[in-house]
Structures are given as structure tokens and as C-alpha cells.
């Protein structure tokens, strides 16, 4: 099997393979020079054509550097001014919540409530630094080895309402999980948009369906913004109907805050299962993490750069041979002079030998 060459090198990362694409750009599985795994998102050029939007993206990246916590995929590096603009975040192995429900069916009440409480923790960290997720949906939640993690928080700022629809009327992004105020294109959004998105995501996790039946783009947008057209909560367990209904209130000021949401979700999770939060947390990871989805650093990934100072070594049958030096003539009439100091050369060969994992 030949060596696997990187597809490209962006910002010092070797791009190995695409992971997916969406309204904001393409995501790649990439490797840093020290073999860290990242999800590298390359932003669509047309989104940053306007200097004002690029400045907004740069400001958003600065805020992303402040987000922390076990429920969010941390930012590793970014270049908001580059061509292309990109950002690299922690690679989280596992399936998305959407993939899990599609493949294995809805989550049980205790697990869904626990997942919701853990995601609320992540949203608290995002909101603490003045960011909003704006695009919370099952596709932006990875069910990792330690439970759910949020990805793509803060990036929906790049897409305004005019980008939701293409000229042909096809959706870019997922308005099905957006709050009415987002669909209307309101500028002064509040953390309540993420409360709505979390509720819509939990409805899907519990039932496998969205808030509104599949329909064409314009009809969906009209339904979301109609205060008399209530979301479909059929199939949601009775224990969560009051909470999710409040989180989906048409008026953002009527939605509960994150602390209240987290406390009520935890209460339902523990009461419906008779188990502690610690036990439920372990069960979430055990039942939702799919280790087969994990991508590893390719063992034969070829580094396209070479160290010009590396000495040529000949490897045969587990040995390292150093080429013999060319002999020189010695004049017996002249006094012998001290030979050159080759200590540095010996040490370099030793280091090379030590790092040859094949030997």
C-alpha cells in the first residue's frame, strides 16, 4: 500500500479527507504538524466577499477563543483574513444526534432529558462570552465518547436572512430549527434563540420528527412565523410537554432561561429513571457513542516537507549503515594534525536512529 498524501495544506494543517459541507463552507478532517486531529472548516468565499461580514467573522473568531467547557468543541486555530478563511476546531469522534436518531430511533425520556441538560451546560459557556449559537440543530451535536458536544457555535452570524434561500427557493441551512425572530431576520437576537433551538432539537431526539412537517421552503418559513401555527409536539412524553412548549414560545421573552431549563431537564431525567445524574451521564455516553465513526491519523500519511539536514541512511534488515568516508592520503613527512570534531555528527546519527520507529 502506498503512502497517503494529504489533499492539501491549509494553515499548516494537512487536509486528509472531507467530512461534510453546509451553508457556510466545507469541513475537512485534518492533521496538525504534531499529529493533533482537527475539523477544519473552510468558509465559502462568497460569504466573506463583503468587508463588513469578514470583520464580523474576525470578531466572532476572537470571541470563540474565550469559549470553554466539556460540552463545546474548542477552537484550535483560525485565520479570518486568509484566502481562504478557515478555522480549526477540536475533532470530536462520534455520530451526530441526527445520524444516531435516523439509525437507531429516538432517545428514551431519561436519556433525552439528560442530553438536553448537558447541552444547556454548553450553551451557558457560549452565552457567557457574548456569543449565540444561532444554528442549534441535531446535525450540530456530536455524541462523543464523553457525551454530547456542540459544534459550529457562533458561525451562523455569517448567514443573514437573504442567504436562507437561493434564487431557486432551496434552503441553505436548516430554518426548521430556527426561532421565529431569526426567520424574520431580526438583528437584535437574544439567548432565547438558542432556547428555541434546543427545544426543537429535543423534540426531534424524542420523536424523530421536526416541529413542522416537511414542506417547501416558503411554506415552512410562513408556518414558523405564524403565532397561531403551533409546533407539533406529538410523541413527546407528557413529562416534557410543558417545558418544551414554553421553550418554543413565539415570544422570545416568554421562554425560560438556561438555568431553569437545565434544572427542569435534570429533574425529569432523574425522576423518570430513578438514577443519579452521574449514572445517567455514563449511560448517555455508553448508549450513544459510536466508536466505529472515529477517524485516526493515517499511519502512512506522507509529510510533503522534508528536513534538508537529515542525513541519508541506508536501512537493511533492521540495521542502520552510515556511508564510509572517502579515504584521504596522508603525507608521512608532515606532522599529524588533530582531526575534525565529529561529535555533533555522531549525536545526530544517534538521534536519527532513535526516532526510526521501524527499527
From TrEMBL:
Transmembrane intervals: none
Keyword Kinase tagged: yes
Domain Protein kinase residues, every copy: 13-266
Binding site for ATP: 45
Highest taxon, organism lineage: Bacteria
SUPFAM superfamilies to which the protein is assigned, alphabetical: Protein kinase-like (PK-like) (SSF56112)
Coiled coil feature spans: none
Keywords, comma-separated and alphabetical: ATP-binding, Kinase, Nucleotide-binding, Transferase
PROSITE patterns assigned: PROTEIN_KINASE_ATP, PROTEIN_KINASE_DOM, PROTEIN_KINASE_ST
Region annotation Disordered: where it falls in the sequence: 315-342
Keyword Cytoplasm appears in the UniProt entry: no
Protein name per UniProt: Protein kinase domain-containing protein
Species whose genome carries this gene: Micromonospora lutea
Upper classification of the organism: Bacteria, Bacillati, Actinomycetota, Actinomycetes, Micromonosporales
